[in-house]
Amino acid sequence: MSLNPPALSAPALLAGLQYSELRQHELRKSRVMMIDGNLTLNSRLSEGGTSARVYRDGYWGFASVPGTGAEATERVGRQSRDNVQAMARFGQRSSVVLPMGGYRGEHIYHGREALDQAEIQDRLGALNAWCKQRYPGLKSIRFVVSDEHHTKWLATSTGGQSLASIQRALCQVVFVGQSADGAPVELMEQVSGKGSLADIDWSIDTLAPQLDELHRHLRAKCEAVAARGGLQTVVLAPPLAGMLAHEAMGHPCEADIVLGGAVTSGLRGQRVASDLISMVDFAHHFQGQEVMIPVYADDEGTPARDAWLIKNGILTEFMNSRETAARLGASPTGSARAYGPSDEPLVRMRNTAILPGQSTLDEMIAGVDSGYLLMKTANGQADSTTEFMFGISLAYEINNGKLGPAIRDTTVSGSAIKVLQSVDAVSNDMHWSCSGYCGKKQPMVVSMGGPALRARAHMGGE
Amino acid sequence: MTMSAQDFDPILRDQAEQVLRLMRAQGFDQAQVSVGWHRQSELNVAHNEPSLMRSTEQSRVSLLGLLDGRRASTELSSLDDVSLRHGVAELYAAAKAAPQDAANAVSANQRARIAQGPLEADPVLLADTMAELLAFRTRETPRFTLEEGATAHHLSQSHTLTTGGSDLASKAGWLSLSAFGTAREGDRASSFNYAGGDAHDWAGQSAEAWFGIGEMMRDTSQQIDTQRFNAKFVGEVVFTPNAVDDLLGWLLGQLGDAQLIAGSSLYRDQVGQVIASPLLGLTSRFAAPGVVPLSADAFNTAPISVLHEGRLQTLLPSLYGSRKTGLAHVPTTSGWEVAAGTTSRAELVGQVERGAIVGRLSMGMPAANGDFSGVIKNSFRIDGGVVGPALSEVMISGNIARMLKEILAVSRERLDTGGTVLPWLRIGGLHFS
User: Fold this and answer.
1) Using CA atoms, how far apart are residues B94 and A39, in angstroms rounded to an integer?
2) What are the structural domains of chain A?
3) pTM, two decimal places
């Protein structure tokens, strides 16, 4: 699909409406999975479509169809107007004046030439053979490589006109070993970044030290002990702090969740974390470098800016779309994003991070008499109460400032506010990743970042 | 309902034939082609108010090509000639580069014509259903904010052809209704909660009665004020159907391709063995609303029993998984039901000395051996068989394989959400912390 400005522009849709937007959206994905040298998945997806969304009297109408061109544009324009008209049956709704302004510009990622399928499969085959030879005791080796490209052309009735792309790639390696009782034990390492599989470094040379580490941790995990359940002192390694930022305080700071009754709604200006904690949802740059998921304009054409969620422990602002900003009396942050061609924009995070502090990870571990170092997480979930949980797939006991045995898979949870208020050390390094999807009606590509944190949190266990 | 050939869209069949010819001409030895589309009309609610009407249309061409045992697949949304030719050529290059694997194959000699559910959208019905749910909220559960709600009509049509002579056509319509939100009073809020499902019509009961939505909204309204256990102990749980779904997902994963091929399934050699409580039965429900009884690898699916009185009846490898492992091929799709028990929900709770009713489990992926721990959400304390206050910051841990064996009672009531029909389960031996 080639993206071209539609013949019918968003302003042309506007007659009788308060706001309109037109989007052409192309989404391409590839995913290859190899289990023990067997190519169990080798798939690609290419999807393109046109959508229109209009606003009148407090209601929205949305329509999407596959393909682009004048006919597709005409159809979605007509259908979205019909849809907003149909909402009139529900009577008067409190209407807001949507903030004006529109971003004009182009931001296309220019990465290396994409790898062809033969090269991807050759590399996977070589990686598999290398792992098999180097780690003969493994029960199974699994690789997943994928990349994902979004290109969006957008025009809005507020004057926005933009062409933007987001690309990200991922390489995951899963080692499966066996515990003494014969049960399978798994551990995963992953590399993710901006661009296609040609842009991230997943060569054997680069991965070798990481895979040696993964293997070492897997062997430790095969002899893991159960965690002690209950409130514990934990050192969250940087990848977990990113997850904490996203799940625990990121979601409750999305303005639509706030409007839905999240506990954060009454906490703006109040202390929600230790003064060591500052947390930002970055739009497109962090410390002068473009972030992994750069958003210069969101899918409502709003110029994107950083949203400072927590500054030195104080809750400062929320992430907003045009409508939530109007309803909360705030300014939009450029956080309205749609995942696929047939999705409408929702308030979503972009690149959410806790900012680094001044300690080192070693110092933070040395300061713990009894607790845990949490190193890898599989996934996480948030709640409107700010109670969160992450699955922990790799962790070690800390006894008298030194690492002890690995512990079996567990879960860490707590009220984000209580956990962040208990933070007494923040490391001076930073880890970013963009490997997973955020789920909220639609999936979404996001990145998350953070330093190591030391806090008190609830561990699942015996 | 089975329709005659002329009731199916001849254009889709022509398109599938044309693409299959293209695949053959490109040089593929074997191929599978599916051409289809999905239309959805959806009414959305935000923060207790109707907010958005959405109409979406998606088309999809799914291609699977085999070349000398090498395999690749792709999905396109465009059926124009240039896109198709480009897609088929790219697919050929991808297959040519793939490793040879004798287990790759496509289905042969399958035929189906399946039509089910409502085939026409009724916008008035959607609006009336949502209006009814909103009225229920205002009247019965005013503290519950319906943060996101949606009701929709879906229509999916597809035609699949393979070089092995399989010819499968389906046309499925269904309705969906979902509700997601929290309850709030002053500055106190409950955890979020949700319910929803698919049906073929809305007849016979009011909107809130579907999929346990009204019960969810009532329960959530009782979960604004919560307590912790402040104790570690081994106790019992009553899993609601929402939590039972997590157990089901883990079990089905153990029986499917990835774990079987990797050799990490706990049940690889357990067919015919007792792997769960004799109270547990699991069967397919492949013609459920929102489900078409055809497998992704283009086979008709026959009804199957997976667990009977706790005894494992079958594994669930696909055609590829079967040829890879030597296990019998069992075509499946989504749609499952757990057999009802003989105990009432009230009795189930009354039998628990110390533990909790678990509305939802918030947890990471259970470990390959079944170990898990998770925060119990939307849950209530039970002491001496009596339901107490709502809980927060309580975790349970255990092992799912062991939990399946430690099911102590199964409710006679079940929750039908379309794709699943699940009872409440009483399970022992969970660590609370």
Assistant:
1) 12
2) 10-222 (3.30.2290.10), 230-459 (no CATH)
3) 0.91
